[in-house]
Design brief:
This protein is mostly helical. It has one domain (about 5-545). Helix content is about 65%, strand content about 0%. It has 18 helices and 2 strands. Helix 3 (about 85-105) packs antiparallel against helix 4 (about 115-130), helix 6 runs antiparallel to helix 8 and helix 8 (about 225-245) runs parallel beside helix 13 (about 380-410).
């Protein structure tokens, strides 16, 4: 099976399996309602069985590979980029397996029928990550696994709306009904977007893509191929963002239409939001985040598409506009006493600025210098595609997390700073764990490989400039300087927020449990999940000097 076929199967199997599970178990909408005694309904037995089958198949796939790599695909070792050897690659995937199993166990008592899709996406993508022989497919699988984990987080805990135990005490219950395919359509959109990105950036060993982009990005001529690829990449990013964003319960609770007139309404969507929260939630989603995100993405795609045919001042103007928009959005969030959301917003823009910044460094040079980069950088051609892929995946993941934080803050008590990580870890441990991993990646630590991708690409560009031109003056381009400043701020914020989150997980006692069995179970699952993923992510860092 080719990597592309495997990825298609992986992306189509989870929603189809989830639909069959929901139909067979007949748990819609009864599964979303509270059972007698204010005890959440149990998860259909087929859910953990499906996850266990995927995990066992993944484990057998790794164990049957010989230590010399005879049974392990050559590309799986990532030796072409000098990142991992055979043993470290196995440790990486075993840690992902551990994370998937812990996620399955930790969410067993929490899953609802619409969250099954996210759970199967996480386990299926993790399983395929151990079987793929293509590096872009591996990155897509790992990022989709993280997105699936975020989608599989416990339902939004609003007092008087969801049944079961919340913060260790019983709450009133109101029947909640959602569409039968509420959790499937968004994942189909996300899968479609991932397939589109894979078709653009993930050909076998990136040969075709490298040839196209070498002609489009490293030559002073027209940019028709790059323009088409930019549009396709933007469409994939929009679909991924739609798949994550539409999963949020933003439907109004009454029979009236939503303020923007675009969201469905009616009795079948009742119970997800209280009437007094309806206007505020819609205002945040429609008037606050989406316009800024759409404007920044549009400007970045414009800068990427027309970058080689613009003079340097025009490029600087576009990048300055993006930075100003980022600062404006960040200051607005700070005024609303939401520093964590401000960090996520700046992180998303910082990730976006890397692409036009590095592109400007390469493309604004002479054709001879561009040819030197293409010849001397070696794997920089492939790394450039990994940079685009990582940028899109990270942007979508941060956007989904940002929206999730906004929803969580709407249900939290507005005391002090609204991004209290202690409250987040107590109420939504899996979301806090995903946030911890994202912050660690922003601070320069694996397991997310976006940091290493940027580092290697930047290292290759710097080395080529030092060898060919004998100077670093071209590296002082304003675009790269802006990206560097944003990255430095992201590292600082990421380290501080990560330390706060880790201290909350390990030091502060929990006030209650959302799992209903033991108050320490959510914290233990979150800590072990973090430890398992970090084990596989930090090993390349420990063995890096020996490569």
């Amino acid at each position: 099976m080719s990597p592309a076929t495997g990825l298609i199967v992986c992306l189509l199997l989870p929603p189809v399996a989830a639909a069959l599970l929901m139909l067979l178990s007949k748990s819609v909408p009864r599964h979303l309602t509270a059972s007698p005694g204010n005890v959440p309904a149990a998860v259909p037995p087929a859910v953990p069985v499906a996850g266990a089958v995927l995990a066992v198949a993944f484990l057998l796939r790794i164990m049957t590979a010989s230590p010399s790599g005879g049974g392990l695909p050559e590309d799986l070792t990532l030796n072409q980029f000098g990142l991992l050897d055979d043993q470290l690659a196995r440790l990486w995937h075993l840690s992902c397996l551990l994370a998937g199993l812990l996620l399955l166990i930790g969410l067993y008592r929490q899953c609802t029928s619409d969250q099954v899709c996210g759970l199967l996406l996480a386990t299926g993508a993790t399983a395929l990550a151990g079987c793929t022989c293509d590096l872009p497919a591996l990155l897509i699988c790992l990022e989709l696994a993280a997105a699936g984990a975020a989608l599989a987080c416990p339902a939004w805990k609003e007092a008087g709306q969801t049944g079961g135990l919340e913060m260790g005490r019983e709450t009133a219950t109101v029947p909640v009904q959602t569409p039968r395919l509420a959790g499937i359509v968004p994942l189909l959109l996300a899968g479609l977007g991932a397939l589109l990105l894979y078709g653009v950036c993930g050909t076998s060993r990136l040969e075709v893509a490298a040839e196209v982009m070498e002609t489009a990005w490293l030559s002073p001529g027209p940019l028709e191929p790059a323009g088409e690829i930019s549009v396709a990449a933007m469409a994939g990013a929009v679909l991924l963002l739609a798949g994550i964003g539409f999963r949020l319960p933003v439907f109004p609770s009454s029979g009236r239409c939503s303020p923007d007139g675009m969201l469905p309404s009616g009795p079948q969507f009742s119970g997800l939001w209280q009437s007094e929260n309806e206007a505020g939630v819609q205002a945040v989603l429609v008037q606050s985040f989406f316009p800024r995100a759409a404007a920044v993405v549009a400007l970045l795609r414009l800068a990427e598409t027309v970058l080689p045919v613009l003079h340097e001042p025009a490029v600087v103007v576009l990048l300055v506009l993006c930075v100003l928009m980022a600062l404006t959005g960040g200051l607005q969030l700070l005024k609303q006493r939401r520093p964590l959301e401000c960090f996520c917003w700046l992180l998303m823009v910082q990730s976006a600025l890397w692409l036009p910044g590095l592109m400007a460094v390469i493309l604004l040079e002479s054709p001879a210098a561009a040819g030197t980069v293409a010849e001397a950088a070696g794997s920089a051609q492939s790394l450039r595609f990994l940079l685009v892929l990582a940028f899109l995946a990270e942007t979508c993941l941060v956007a989904g997390l940002l929206l999730s934080l906004q929803q969580w803050q709407k249900t939290s008590t507005p005391v002090g700073w609204q991004d209290d990580l202690a409250g987040l870890i107590r109420t939504r441990p899996v979301a806090a764990t995903v946030l911890c991993l994202l912050l660690l990646a922003a601070a320069g630590c694996p397991p997310l490989m976006t940091f290493w991708t940027r580092l290697l690409l930047l290292q290759s560009v710097v080395s080529v400039h030092l060898e060919s031109a004998g100077e670093v003056a071209p590296l002082l381009h304003p675009g790269l300087a802006a990206a560097g400043l944003a990255a430095a701020g992201g590292v600082a914020c990421g380290l501080v927020a990560t330390l706060r989150l880790l201290s909350t997980i390990t030091l502060e006692p929990p006030r209650g449990s959302i799992a209903g069995s033991s108050s320490h179970v959510p914290l233990l699952v979150a800590a072990l999940l973090t430890l398992g993923l970090l084990t596989g992510g930090l090993c390349p860092l420990l063995w890096w000097p020996g490569q």
